[in-house]
Amino acid sequence: MASLLLAISSLVFSGQLMAQDSQGEKVLIGVLAYNGEQQTLDRWRPTAEYLAQHIDGRPFEIVPLTHEDFVHAINKGQLDFILTNPGHYTVLEVEYGATRIATFKSRFEDRILTHFGSVIFTRRDSAIENLQGFRGHTLAAVSNSAFGGFQLAQAEFLNKNLDIYDDSSLKWLGFPHTDIVKAVLSGQADAGTVRTGILEKMAARGEIDLSEIRILEQKATTDFPLLHSTDLYPEWPIARLPDTDAKLAKQVAITLLQMPENALPAVASEGAGWTIPLDYRSVHELFRRLQVLPYPPVPLELKDFWQSYRDWILLMGVLFLGCMVAIFYTLKINRELKYSQQALSNHGEKLEAGINERTAELSAVNRALQEDIESRIKFENTLHEGCEILQTMYTISSRNDLTRQQRMQSIVDLARQYLSEEVGVFSIFDGESFQTSTFSPASEELSAPLDSDHALQALQSGQIVHLQDDSKYRSYVACSSPLPDHKSGLLEFASLNHDNVEVLEQPITAPAELGLRILHLLTQWVGNELTQLESEKKYTDKQQQAQLRFADITQREREVLQLVADGESNKDIARKLDISAKTVELHRANLIRKTATNSSIQLIKLATSAEIVF
Length: 614
Hints:
Blueprint: H1 2-23, E1 27-32, H2 37-54, E2 60-65, H3 67-75, E3 81-83, H4 86-96, E4 99-108, E5 111-113, E6 115-116, E7 118-123, E8 138-141, H5 147-159, H6 164-167, E9 169-172, H7 178-185, E10 191-195, H8 198-204, E11 213-215, E12 233-234, E13 237-240, H9 246-257, H10 264-268, E14 271-275, H11 281-290, H12 302-397, H13 404-419, E15 423-429, E16 434-440, H14 452-461, E17 465-468, E18 473-483, E19 487-496, H15 512-548, H16 555-565, H17 570-577, H18 581-594, H19 600-609
Parallel strand pairs: 1-2, 1-3, 8-9, 8-10
Antiparallel strand pairs: 3-13, 4-5, 4-13, 4-14, 6-12, 7-10, 7-11, 15-16, 15-19, 17-18, 18-19
Helix pairs in contact: 12-13, 12-15, 13-15, 16-18, 17-18
């Protein structure tokens, strides 16, 4: 369908040209119709009418053309002026000798612009953040010959060391540029490139939302308000062809330069009039870099290559000779280094042997030091445990809530746990037999002694007996302490050998010196507690006997006894109790008789011992 329309357009245009040739009066301006024939006429026809009004005798007509139409019309000499984009103009300038006479001034809001560029964009939700991450994606563009619709973007990709043809997929959508934007937003392409100003115009018309678009490699250029990703290049030029009358070209140039910025033709063209022709060398440099028409790559012959790069070839030759000399010199040095390296290797082996020997000596010293450290740590731990058990002994002895029997039981339990033994017993030896006093754990009833031979050995020697791997016990320890009445206290602990049980480890016991000294101290402590217990028992028995002698006294006699103990006389007692002195003497006599004492002094002592008076 597009081919049919193009053929019809060409036939119509050929007919127009034949009619115009017959008149020989009209001045034809060929305009690149990138937005279609009708939009091109609507935009530029007011400019043609403006020229006709200011240049007498010559009517002007706008002829919308494609790139192919331009070639056909120029070859037939059917155009006087051309109005096209900078890239297309550069091709026509080189191939047909077109000469620019003015440059178009575009308008954006209240800003007047003489340059434009391209913008490369994608969707806001796209994973593409920059051009380096574009490999493997699809780019939508107008065509490979579109200046603002592709070639400027291609140059920007080259700036990032990317070949857009090899590193991505291209989708050619043709004009208008708005189709590129719609294709990207609908997901038909990953990204797109259009001329600057297209996105802003579509947003102003409500066709798109700029917040849905991400600009890739966005640049900021002073006095250029439009979104852009590329460098900026001069706007569209109007140019004369070689056969165009020079006087007419001058009149056209002057008329366009004098056009007011707000004139109807300027507004209709979406611009602000015209300015003097700008420098388009940057466009030529761009095409040379891209190696596209009018500067396609040309095979370089050997003669041309020599003439073009002679100085570089000579320099490279000198560098090559220098490198060869350096290589031979390096080989010589390497041989010398090889001999030196062998000598160093032999010396290194000897040095390594010496180091290994010294390392072995240091390792032995280090092991000895480590053993010493471990020994010291073990001793410190033992000392710490000894301090803890002494602190525990002090705590037990200072507890008033425990009876002496309970304190004795706690001390024996503490000693057994400290020595990590299974059972323990404290017994009393009166010279003939043993009597069990306290055993640990309290849930077991043990008879004393645990081992007769070793128990008698500890009593007779006064030393601590400490055995391991005995036939009866895995370990056994005994310690004695003297008691009153020619008695001795014996503290024994043991870990039993159990039938059918394989003993993998010996029980943990305290060190011989510190641990056994603490054991001796524990034995003395238990003995002291036992002595105090016996004394308290005797005192309690005496007290009970004294209390029995006061069992028959009356309440009045008890009152008299208390006042006598307080040192009161008979008269004072009689007055306080409201009785007669004779009665007081009678009560005192009864007290002496009932308690079987001989005097008041003995009576008071007996009452105090029985805790009758205080």
